[in-house]
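Let us practice reading a record.
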Amino acid sequence: MSAPLRSMRIFALPLSKNLAKSPTSVPLVFYHVQMPAVAVSQAGSTPLHKRALNWTANTWNSWGEAKGGWKLKVHTYGEKVIERIEFEENALKSVDTALGPALASLSKIKEINPSDSTEGGVATRIPLFHPTSFSNPQPLDHLKSFLAHRGPAHRKYFYLWLGAIPFTAPFMVIPIIPNLPFFFCAWRAWSHWRAFRAADYLQSLVEHSVVVPTPSPTLDRLYQSDASDTADSLQSLNPARIPEFISTYDLSSTTATELGRAIDQAKLRSEKSANTDSQKDK
């Protein structure tokens, strides 16, 4: 059990050249949390909630393969909605907290020895990989600010979407098409709940002093721009090196997709912020 815990890793990738400000007045950063893989011998049967999620994902994908009709239209529109969801939410909700260090064990150890961060007698250290150039603010300080903002925000929106579910009941009288408003509200509530739980969990790990900032030569290469690159709203995050990042750390293709989406959103936010500032100066 102890060895896999040490393979949990957090990656911090700044997304804007001028460190464009987010609503929390901190730089835009894409955080990806790589959780330990479950050993086959420990995996056992798939939990009910994961089977439900797999069924939902397969059903959604099948709608995208439809030859027309309302299923394809719903899938097409739904994909556009997904593209607009904040990359921070998507990154947090993908964290499976059940695979990380048990907070209860870390808390008991802290009570005995406040300077110790171990689980089962094995040191628990979670590297926070970041490019060397990410130094202002310090990566760990930024992560703290990020989690302190995202946690309460996702908790609030979880309750808002949960409260909207009862109002979808009238749509159940339509017998042909599923109650799409209900499923949408339930999905948004679930997404914000997952993001809140992840933010709360990561914040606890930071408080237990197990997250350690770690400069990464691989990420430094990711931030090396070609000589032909021109200055724009993005920091020198070289998209051509993203496959190297994915392969070096054995990340999934989904991570590459989410990183690309985060880059696009950061660019739009930076442009919007620049336009707003220019309007204020007039």
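A brief commentary: The beta strands are 9-14, 29-34, 118-119, 122-123, 126-130, 211-215.
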